[in-house]
Amino acid sequence: MSTVADQILRAPPGISPKPSPPPLPAPGASPHASISARPAAVPDFKAAHAFQRFWWTGLAAAVAWAVLAVLTYVWPNKPAGFSEWAFTEEFAAGAAVIALALAVVVLVPRVLGAVGQRLRPAGPWLVAIAVGLAVWEVFTAKLGTLPPPFFAPPQSLVEVYVTDWARLLESAVASVRLLALGIAIGAAAGFVTGVLIGWSRQASYWIHPVLRILGPVPTTALLPVSFYFFPSSWSTAIFLIALGTAFPVAILTWSGVAGVHKNYYDVARTLGASPWFLVLRVAIPAALPQVFVGLFMGLGAAFSTLVV
Description:
Distance between the termini: 100 Å
CATH superfamily of the largest domain: MetI-like
Oligomer: single chain
Order of helices and strands: HHHHHHHHHHHHHH
Number of strands: 0
Largest sheet: none
Low-confidence stretches: 33-37, 43-52
Number of helices: 14
CATH topology of the largest domain: MetI-like fold
Mean pLDDT: 82
């Protein structure tokens, strides 16, 4: 059977070629087979995608917070030898509000839009927090397994934050000021000391043994001596926090400066760099990762000293 192209080539000028007839059915096949044939069913990818996009962890979080609310409100508190735990109903109401908000976000995701989408990664944490609060509530207020006042239920924290918020705010501001000043002084002193002993062999000869001896000593062990030399508890606290921050910063800064490859210094000297340039532009930038590790470790020591 000739194709359409062959017919076009063979047709005389001015006469349009006849279209090719449709292909004949195969021998033994029904003439209506091509008409009755239907395409195969296509999987519903939209439904599968919607099933995967559903926030199942959010639903679990809503259920967990609802269970916490019901457990706190329905289960009576165990008598603890003094007045009833205050703010129990308020704590249950707060858990119920959180459960309702999560249910709305899960079932009607368009209500919050982008905010609801940002909550999706926090789904497992929302479940874990609700479960943790429920376990805490059961073993303290409901069963009394953990004896008060050493172990207080969650609603007692709400009571403290509501009734003593002014004192808590004042104490927090004073602690932050004390911590910031001590960390600033200790970090600056430790950084300068670390650069000095990492760059100068003479300074390392005299200072490095002192750091090795006094570094492992807890700052709280120096509390009696500090009270003797400093006139007030404020200055004593600043000194101890600064001391606890300075030691790890100094040790790790020294390690970073001493570990800079000599090729960096050789290249800089070849280009005419001065000793100050080598310290400020080569040694210190190369040692910054170690410096930040020292700051992180010093922050932990500062918090420990602040608590004491």
